[in-house]
Amino acid sequence: QKETVSHLRPELFDFHGVSMAHYFTDNCDNVDNFQAKPDDILIATYPKAGTTWVSHLLDLLYFGKSSPKRGVSLPIYERVPFLEFSVPALCPTGVEMSDKMTTSPRLIKTHLPVQFVPKSFWEQKCRIVYVARNAKDNVVSYFHFDRMNSLMPEPGDWPNYLQRFQEGKLVFGSWYDHVKGWWEKKQVYPKLLYLHYEDLAEDIDRELDRVCSFLGVCPTEEERRQVKEGVKFDAMKKNSMANYSTMNVMDFKISPFIRKGKVGDWKNHFTVYQNEQFDKEYQKKMMNTTLKFRTEI
Ligand code: A3P
Fold first, then answer.
1. Which residues form the Sulfotransferase domain (predicted)?
2. What tens digit of pLDDT does each residue of 122-135 get?
């Protein structure tokens, strides 16, 4: 039985122009100096965009056949280390875990905005899978996550949280800057696959094809079937090695990590007025990009 730790709430602070919490910056020198290997695969997201979904998918795709028990015996945060994570009281840092990994390829997760990614990933020309989720569902999911995770700053109430999302005052900064920054990078860095949560939810077969062709892997029909089974919402929700239930900084009584997994849950949270205000602000902030999102499917 895990004991929930609930006294760690950090403050938000400005880190080179991006709002951060110290658990994700304390190790920044080692993160900056991280040595990537050419076959590393970086999974990059703004928090709550489907990181765990795609991490579990890639892990099953690469290792499900050779180690069929891996996905149900090793927690996702050990299979796919979180690069900038630094809570020594809890576990080795993301850099230490990544350095120790013996698998090939290494799958590594980050929430860093593109300008903070260690230069070694670019020098080694690593493949990167970025996952983006529409702003409305993303902020709802982040709100519930910040409520249940004591490593995150106090979320406060929903109206205030929504306001801070628009101002970029959440950990890892502005959603707008994040998704647009990575989108711009994609235009100049061909080894970046830009996925959308909504597309994964709509047609996992199609998205799995895109992932496989990007990574150059050719699973058999049976392997594909197993990957698709493993990454279904209900399967991941039940799988303690994918659902974070072994992490004692999270209080599932407040909200589970794998919560609803829906496109459009924002409709249960936004008032009509909040939605109108949000749309106005959104239009302004997304005027200068070709990046598009769907808030329903
Ligand atoms: P909700 O809070 O909307 O349910 P991340 O892994 O980036 O932290 O993202 C977590 C979000 O992805 C949560 O969203 C979670 O439920 C959702 N998610 C995780 N696994 C999923 C799956 N297999 N299918 C659909 N959504 C999934």
1. 38-289
2. 999 999 999 999 99
